[in-house]
Structure formats: C-alpha cells, structure tokens
C-alpha cells in the first residue's frame, strides 16, 4: 500500500521526467536560437544594410552586444541540455543535435569574431568600402549559425515526434 520513497518505480519515473525535461529544454533553446538567428539574417541585417553603410555600422555595435548575451546563453543551455538527454536516453542523435547547436560558439569565435572586431573598431568608419565588405561578410558568416541551429532544431523536433509516436 505504501511505496518506499526510493523505490525502483519512483527512480524510474523521476528519470523519465528528467529526460523529458532536458529534451524539451534543448529543443526550446535550439528553437529560440534558430528563430533569433534566422530573424537577424532575413530581417535585421538586410534592414540595417538598407539604411546605408555608416548607419549600418553605427547600429551594428549595440545590436551585436545585445545579441551576444542572448545567443551564448541559448546555445550553451541547449548544448548542455542535449548532452544530459543523450546521457539519460543513450541516443547519440541528441549528442549530434547538441553538437550542431553548440558548434555555433566555436564557429563564432574562430570565424566571425575577427570580422566583429573590425566592425567594432572606430577606424572602420573612416573606410566605408571596407565597412561594406565586412558587413556583407558578416551576413554570410552569420547565415552559417542560422543553418546549424535550424539543423539542430529539426533533429530535436524529429526525435520528439518519434518519441510521441
């Protein structure tokens, strides 16, 4: 009639709940990251570029600083949650999805950060041709982040869908 607190059934149920929670957090983080990244590529950056190079360059710094905190938090949370889901479920597809999302961090540091530093350098405003080239390059590089996060989101959604079936 009374179950022991540490019974196998309770531990199994707790593990199931934890697994579901980590999968949902990974998927939500990936979805929010992908949505923000795609928005930046399809809406914000093209609108920034339409204002002219000097205003685009001026707007880049505050946008970059605000987005950095949000996107690093989402990518890290999604990656760590996916790693926990992989360990709990022993399904390497969660590891792959987490790796896709987590890879945006080193990609940003290695591929995008040098361009960011040049765009944030006040001297760049003195060479509008260079600024335009850098802003255009930045848009293409940022698209890679959108693709990686969308791939992660798609994989997570497929995994959740198969789990429910």
Specify the number of helices: 5
The ordered H/E elements are HHHHH
Shape: elongated
Q: How widely separated are the two ends?
A: 33 Å
Name the structural class.
mainly alpha
| β-strand amount | under 5%
Q: Report the mean per-residue pLDDT as an integer.
A: 94
Number of DSSP strand runs: 0
Largest sheet: none
What gyration radius follows from the Cα positions, in whole Å? 20 Å
Poorly predicted regions are none
Please estimate the helix content.
over 70%
How many independent structural domains? 1
Produce a short descriptive summary.
The chain is an all-alpha fold. The chain has five helices and no strands. The mean pLDDT is 94.
Write the topology of this structure:
Blueprint: H1 8-50, H2 53-89, H3 92-102, H4 104-120, H5 128-164
Describe the structure.
The model has no long low-confidence stretch (mean pLDDT 94). By secondary structure, the protein is mainly alpha-helical. It contains five helices and no strands.
Keywords:
5 helices, mainly alpha, 165 residues
